[in-house]
């Protein structure tokens, strides 16, 4: 059974994964244009894209622990998931920039004055070099430096979860749960159990 799942995963072409990953964002925008997202569609799009981005980042963090502790071979999915996570962050950011803030002078003011925006920006900028180097050519060129560079994903995901907490109105349990999940997934990598294998 597990062998079958592994061989099915191996057979999935990357383009199909990217196509599948694009469905939620396209669907969200289609709903927005059809006025099916309530009175504030931009706000809904912004929030849902942010959530998708965080889910994908968390999914990316889950791959390696699953690979190490179960017979499931999911490594093939890590790069497409990571690249798609960044795409969602980018569209989330562009939605904010183009459809929400709009006024150029307000953009910088928001980045500097609103802590959640500042933290979100730092998280996105940390992910940028990872997205740019998620290709075979960069892996070959960078050699062992590639691994060191991709360590940036950990502070980036932690900051993304902090960004979610900061943007929430008042105390909310859901962002706290996300931060806890992220801290556990990052923390587990530092345990001897994880490093021994
Ligand atoms: C790694 C990068 C990022 C991730 C994973 C992320 C994720 C999220 C999440 C999960 C939410 C809350 C969604 C909800 O509760 O429904 C959110 C909200 C938001 N994010 Fe991000 N975000 C990132 C970067 C950014 C950046 C760079 C900006 C803009 C500069 C930004 C602007 C916003 C805005 C405007 C909101 C909604 C705030 C509100 O309604 O008051 N995010 N983001």
Automatic annotation (TrEMBL):
Primary location: membrane
Key words of the record: Cell membrane, Electron transport, Flavoprotein, FMN, Heme, Iron, Membrane, Metal-binding, Transmembrane, Transmembrane helix, Transport
Membrane topology: Multi-pass membrane protein
InterPro entries in the cross-refs: Fe3_Rdtase_TM_dom, MsrQ-like
Subcellular location: Cell membrane; Membrane
Boundaries of every Ferric oxidoreductase domain copy: 49-160
Domain of life: Bacteria
Cofactor field: FMN; heme b
Chain ranges passing through the membrane: 12-30, 50-68, 80-99, 119-137, 149-166, 172-188
Cofactor, how bound (note): Binds 1 FMN per subunit.
Subunit description: Heterodimer of a catalytic subunit (MsrP) and a heme-binding subunit (MsrQ).
Function: Part of the MsrPQ system that repairs oxidized periplasmic proteins containing methionine sulfoxide residues (Met-O), using respiratory chain electrons. Thus protects these proteins from oxidative-stress damage caused by reactive species of oxygen and chlorine generated by the host defense mechanisms. MsrPQ is essential for the maintenance of envelope integrity under bleach stress, rescuing a wide series of structurally unrelated periplasmic proteins from methionine oxidation.
Protein family per UniProt: Belongs to the MsrQ family.
Annotated protein name in UniProt: Protein-methionine-sulfoxide reductase heme-binding subunit MsrQ
Native source organism of the sequence: Donghicola mangrovi
